[in-house]
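Exercise: predict the fold of this chain.
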Amino acid sequence: MSLTIVVSPEAEGDLQRIYDHISEQSGATRALGYVDRILAHCEGFATFPERGRRRDDLRPGLRVTGFERRVTIAFHLMGDHVVIDRILYAGRNVQAAFDTDDVP
């Protein structure tokens, strides 16, 4: 069974900030490539949704996994969907991101 991937508004904002940061440092082409690789990695959760480490201490059912040693992806299962909650770049604090939903 393949699940549907849903990217939350917070994760979309995270991706935009990652794109903006990399684009400023290395150009739009490199930034777009990196964001595309992150999204392709997230699509893999449709087949293997239980990878990563459980973080029930932050939110029941939350899982966290790394991507290319620079990004932390937080997600959870909801029925036949995998919801990408946050995509945190360069060591951003996962706990702080879930303490309040308005962390930039």
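Check your answer against the key: Helices lie at 9-26, 28-43, 94-99.
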